[in-house]
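Exercise: predict the structure of this protein bound to zinc ion.
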Amino acid sequence: MKIYNTLTRQKEDFKPIKENEVGIYSCGPTVYSSPHIGNMYAYVCWDVLTRTFKYLGYKVNNVINITDVGHLISDADSGEDKMEKGSKREGLTVWEIAKKYENEFLENLKELNIELPWKMPRATDHIQEQIEIIKKIEANGFTYRTSDGIYFDTSKFADYGKFANLNLEKIREGMRVEVNEEKKNPSDFALWKFSPTNEKRQMEWESPWRMGFPGWHIECTAMSTKYLGETFDIHTGGEDHISVHHTNEIAQSFAAFGHNTAHYWMHNAFITFKGEKISKSSGGLYTIFDLKEMGFDPMAFRYMVLSSHYRKGMEFSLENLKVAERALNKLRGLKPTPNPSLDRAGSYSVNLEYKNEFEEKISDDLAMPEVLALVWKVVKSDLTLEEKWATILDFDKVLGLDLDSAKQNFIIPEEIIELNNKRIVFRKEKNYEEADELRKKINSLGYLVEDSENQCKIRPIK
Ligand code: AMP
Ligand code: ZN
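Solution:
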């Protein structure tokens, strides 16, 4: 197995710490709002990684944490607390916000057929572990105290910024207006923030320093090492984490343990929309449930993710999603009708030549676009339908498209999907009359729409 290691900026042979076992830590979601397709892109990529290791015979211990402590909006430890922001927005407590969006994240995993990780620890359940690591960092002389917290002194770590090829001089020059004048270096970051004296925070804890809450980066150092050990195999995250979050995790682990924690650091590139990072202003901030409401099958999104390489990212559009859904339904349509005379064990055999090719491609830093090309090569091959299906189902252990359950082996015509999208818009505008007209039109064309709280299904009238 070869994987691209951000530490060395090259593809390397994967050498596990323990034979046939792999420990993987993936930075998890911040549970203050609905996960969008960009977030879920990352978790599909890491699901493919864990499935690949399982397919190759490894025991996989993978951890995805839940960031439920409200770290501050900006990476510079300033600005509003994300969880408090969610709490104000919805009139719920921060604890209720955390629970609500953790559940939503779990529903997203299910919709996308992402296997539940081995462990899913919450930051708020690991405050003591975070305090213990900060104490170690402090004892080793890497911290200083300001009026609002305990900070990591990045000038004490000679290799700070090496991981992300950061030019610290440039950063210093670039930061003409330093938000926190008490910080010794612009790149220093909070390990523990003090609660304001004049205000009670919804989330705060006693500590050896003062009542407060942990900085963002320390939770990942605490939870990864608690479950996987002080050194483990792989740490993953989005490429946005390279310059700050992971750079700081690496600094923390050197200060606490004297070494880096993960041997391999893997990063996924981003989903873009009209060429830009998806955001409120550029658009494209869909959730999986938005796509479902438009009549798309979440598995079409998974197929679309597979068609991109995790280090290249993906341009998202509803048109591309339609193309992915068509391809997926074509694959599902291959399912042979059960043939009792062939249904004995061993009757459907996986083609070993294609299986070898498949293993080569997944082992080459998860070359999923090439794997999909191979799937279509199998489809077009002169194998029997049963052999094709058996071979593709074997690949599906990694693809995770859940092809065998073939939830939907009918194809909804685009005309119907478009009519339904218009109907949803009318419903959102509370224009029920027009919405109902469109529903009737869809019915007259032979399809039924079923609305429930947060989704809508279309199916043919039998
Ligand atoms: P967050 O909930 O903001 O902490 O993000 C969860 C994960 O989603 C992180 O690993 C991010 O790097 C990743 N992520 C956020 N936006 C995108 C995007 N547009 N494309 C791919 N990954 C993303
Ligand atoms: Zn993290």
